[in-house]
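Input (structure):
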C-alpha cells in the first residue's frame, strides 16, 4: 500500500519502494508525483523509486546521507530494517486496521474486496494487508451486512 509522501521545501528527497506485486503501479505513481512536482518549485528528482531488496540493503548502509527510514510492512520487515542499519527507523507497532463501508459503496464489490483482504492477505504478518474491523454505515441494509458476515 502506498502512502502519500510530502517532500518539504528545504530539499528533502523521498525514496519510494512498493512491493514486487505492484512494481508497475509504483512506477506509474512515482512518475505521476514527479510530473506533479515539475509544476512546482520542487525538483522532480526529489522522488526516487527503487524496486529490489538489494537496493534497500544498499540504502541501509548510507547512514551519512539518509536521515530517516520509514518502513511500511510486517513487524518482521520493520525489525529486519532496524537491525541492519544505523539510520534512525520510524517503525510501527501492531495496529488495528479498520475498513469503513459508506452508504454510497458498491456492496457487492465491498464483499469481494473484504473477503480477498481477509483470506488472501490475512495469513501474512502485516496489519497493512488485512483489516481487523469493518465499520458499516447505518443505512446499509441488514441483508448486506449479513452477506458480509457470511462471506
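Output (sequence):
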Amino acid at each position: 500500500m502506498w502512502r502519500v509522501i510530502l517532500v518539504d521545501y528545504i530539499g528533502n528527497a523521498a525514496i519510494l519502494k512498493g512491493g514486487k506485486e505492484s512494481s508497475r503501479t509504483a512506477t506509474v505513481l512515482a512518475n505521476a508525483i514527479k510530473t506533479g512536482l515539475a509544476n512546482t518549485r520542487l525538483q522532480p528528482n526529489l522522488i526516487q523509486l527503487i524496486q529490489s531488496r538489494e537496493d534497500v540493503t544498499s540504502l541501509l548502509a548510507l547512514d551519512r546521507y539518509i536521515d530517516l527510514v520509514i518502513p511500511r510492512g510486517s513487524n518482521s520487515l520493520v525489525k529486519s530494517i532496524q537491525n541492519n542499519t544505523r539510520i534512525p527507523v520510524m517503525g510501527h507497532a501492531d495496529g488495528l486496521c479498520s475498513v469503513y463501508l459508506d452508504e454510497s459503496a458498491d456492496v457487492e464489490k465491498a464483499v469481494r474486496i473484504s473477503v480477498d483482504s481477509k483470506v488472501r492477505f490475512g495469513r501474512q504478518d502485516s496489519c497493512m494487508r488485512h483489516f481487523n474491523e469493518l465499520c458499516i454505515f447505518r443505512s446499509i441494509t441488514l441483508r448486506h451486512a449479513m452477506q458480509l458476515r457470511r462471506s
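Notes: DSSP finds five helices and four strands in the chain. Residues 23-38 form the longest helix (16 residues).
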